[in-house]
Amino acid sequence: MSGSSGGAAASVNSAPPAQEEGMTWWYRWLCRLSGVLGAVSCAISGLFSCVTIHPLNIAAGVWMITNAFVLLLCEVPFCCPFIEFANTVSAKVDRLRSWQKAVFYCGMAVIPIVISLTLTTLLGNAIAFATGVLYGLSALGKKGDAISYARIQQQKQQADEEKLAETMEGEL
């Protein structure tokens, strides 16, 4: 049993992680930290949502506790040491692109709000949603510097002037 899981882990680690697509080390750790904080807030709010007699609140609370487990499993698998497949799942999630993580995390955070729109679900899923937003912002990439922006604007202006000059010559 342990031999087969070691082979699976080796095949997962052979692919390069998609997180190296321009994300700095501190931003990667910020995303992971927000994932952990989002998991904690989802778990606590999920427990509070389950202490009710309304079935939709209970369903939203269970979903939030599941979100907390998935966030911890994806972002920090060492928090789940007794789950054999935790490192494999984390390695597969690390190979996803940033926009895919953003859609996944934001989607997971929106579902309990759709099930039961309460203050507990809103506040509990806010940090988990923010984790998805951080990954989405990293998918957009870095902001360009002023010099390259000015160069692009100058090239556009020159192209517009050349077109204007050609139309002027065509009219004469």
What report would you give on this structure?
26% of the residues are buried. Residues 1-19 have low confidence and may be disordered. The protein is mostly helical and 172 residues long. It contains seven helices and no strands.
Indicate the topology.
Elements (H helix, E strand, L loop, with lengths): L1 H12 L11 H26 L4 H21 L10 H9 L3 H18 L3 H22 L5 H26 L1
| Strand residue percentage | under 5%
Which overall shape is indicated by the principal axes computed on the Cα atoms? elongated
Low-confidence stretches: 1-19
First CA to last CA: what distance? 84 Å
Q: Tally of extended strands?
A: 0
Helix content: over 70%
Overall pLDDT: 81
Give the tags.
mainly alpha, 0% strand, single chain, 172 residues, disordered N terminus
What's a concise summary of this model?
It contains seven helices and no strands.
